[in-house]
TrEMBL record:
<feature type="region of interest" description="Disordered">
    <location>
        <begin position="1"/>
        <end position="92"/>
    </location>
</feature>
<protein>
    <recommendedName>
        <fullName>Sortase family protein</fullName>
    </recommendedName>
</protein>
<feature type="compositionally biased region" description="Low complexity">
    <location>
        <begin position="72"/>
        <end position="89"/>
    </location>
</feature>
<feature type="compositionally biased region" description="Low complexity">
    <location>
        <begin position="19"/>
        <end position="50"/>
    </location>
</feature>
<dbReference type="InterPro" id="IPR023365">
    <property type="entry name" value="Sortase_dom-sf"/>
</dbReference>
<feature type="region of interest" description="Disordered">
    <location>
        <begin position="117"/>
        <end position="149"/>
    </location>
</feature>
<dbReference type="InterPro" id="IPR042001">
    <property type="entry name" value="Sortase_F"/>
</dbReference>
<feature type="compositionally biased region" description="Pro residues">
    <location>
        <begin position="51"/>
        <end position="71"/>
    </location>
</feature>
Length: 251
């Protein structure tokens, strides 16, 4: 499969992850996104809102199908009274689950996760453009606790003239606010928790991105997580020239 065309241009205020080729993935457009007609090609990553964030880069992944949901809901451990979701301890999930919240305790981050399918124009989605702190989780990719594959989340970055989004905070001054060893927790509605340890945050220039890379899309590798934000806003073109891909390994 050849390289995928970049996602359609969003508004000058927005940034989004790069287009990601996922073979023959199809799904209905998310009600919270504004899919715009894309150039021909497999899967790309969707754009955010008038003041929003970036999208992941194109990466062929063949005919990936997400694992079927478990037929029975396994017993889960609820957080102890008074501890709240953020106080949940890391544990190996009994089965895969849909994340609804995420926590980065050292940075004081505790926000919601929005499960979003591949858009009708074949893009990995990002959160609504005016949502500064929520993460969009690609629901057609690997789930937390699945035992293999890289879960993909996107968070908005806003252009310099706007109030910062969480993506701006995570890479303030062009340096990762996350330190190696920092833990992010993904929480499910049934009390599940999956923990991931931060390892690195490579910045990839759009022009240099290798579509065969597994930096963003990797359905069959070790269980892991990537959070993608846009960076290097280009005021002349209204585009974001790079993506930062925060890499995490499952604890």
């Amino acid at each position: 499969m050849g390289a995928v065309a970049w996602w359609p241009r969003g508004t000058p205020d927005a940034a989004e992850p790069l287009p990601v080729s996922t073979g023959s993935v199809t799904s209905s457009p998310s009600p919270t996104t504004d899919p715009t007609p894309s150039r021909t090609g497999p899967v790309t990553v969707a754009s955010p809102t008038p003041s929003a964030s970036p999208a992941p880069l194109p990466t062929p992944v063949g005919r990936y199908s997400p694992p079927p949901s478990p037929s029975a809901t396994p017993a889960t451990t609820q957080p102890a009274a008074g501890t709240g979701v953020a106080g949940q301890q890391c544990a190996t999930p009994a089965s895969s689950f849909v994340p609804t919240r995420y926590t980065i305790e050292r940075l004081g981050v505790h926000e919601r996760v929005i499960a979003m399918p591949t858009t009708g124009s074949g893009q990995v989605p990002s959160p609504p453009k005016n949502d500064r702190r929520s993460a969009g989780w690609w629901s057609d990719g690997p789930r937390p606790g699945a035992g293999k594959g890289k879960a993909v989340m996107t968070i908005h970055t806003y252009r310099p003239s706007l109030r910062p989004a969480l993506g701006n905070e995570l890479y303030r001054g062009g340096r990762s606010a996350l330190r190696p060893g920092d833990i992010i927790k993904l929480h499910g509605s049934g009390g599940q928790v999956a923990c991931y340890r931060f390892t690195e945050a490579p910045k990839i220039w759009v022009r240099d991105y290798d579509p065969s890379s597994r930096l963003m899309v990797d359905p069959n590798g070790a269980p892991s997580l990537v959070i993608v934000i846009c960076w290097d806003f280009n005021g002349r073109t209204g585009d974001w020239d790079s993506r930062v891909m925060f890499q995490f390994e499952q604890v």
